[in-house]
Amino acid sequence: MTKDFTVKAFGEALDLSRVSIWRMIKEDQLHAYKVRNSVRIPFGELSRLQQENKIQPATEVDHEH
Q1: CA separation for the pair 7, 55 (Å, rounded)
Q2: Between the CA of residue 56 and those of 49, 52, 64, what are the distances in Å?
Q3: Residue 4: its pLDDT value, please?
Q4: Residue 7: which of 48, 37, 51 has the closest Cα?
Q5: What is the pLDDT of residues 6-65, one digit of tens each?
Q6: What is the model's pLDDT at position 18?
Q7: Could you tell me which of 27, 26, 25 has the C-alpha nearest to residue 45?
Q8: Which of 59, 51, 52, 40 is nearest to 2 (CA)?
Q9: C-alpha span between 45 and 50 (Å, rounded)
Q10: CA distance linking residue 64 with residue 41, whole number of Å
Q11: Could you tell me if 5 and 32 are in contact, meaning their C-beta atoms sit under 8 angstroms apart?
Q12: Is this structure's pTM higher than 0.90?
């Protein structure tokens, strides 16, 4: 079983601050859940963010601008 991320560990995985991670949770850009006083981010959120924010190769139309 894969463990879910803490806010700190998720931030470290993406080289983002804890404040940025909390902002993403608050703005509903990142799914998280709470168990007692501990917030966890599902392991699958990392790959979901990577796929949703994937940079697409430039097309010829993009080069004209």
Answers
A1: 25
A2: 14, 11, 16
A3: 96
A4: 37
A5: 999 999 999 999 999 999 999 999 999 999 999 999 999 999 999 999 998 887 665 555
A6: 96
A7: 25
A8: 40
A9: 8
A10: 41
A11: no
A12: no
* Residue written as token pair 């991670």: 21
Residues 6+ apart with CB under 8 A from 25: 7, 32, 39, 41
CB atoms within 10 A of CB 49: 18
- 3-class SS string, 1-65: CCCCECHHHHHHHHCCCHHHHHHHHHCCCCCCEEECCEEEECCHHHHHHHHHCCCCCCCHHHHHC
Bridge partners (DSSP) of residue 38 are 35
Q: For residue 64, which phi and psi values (nearest 5 degrees)? A: -70, -20
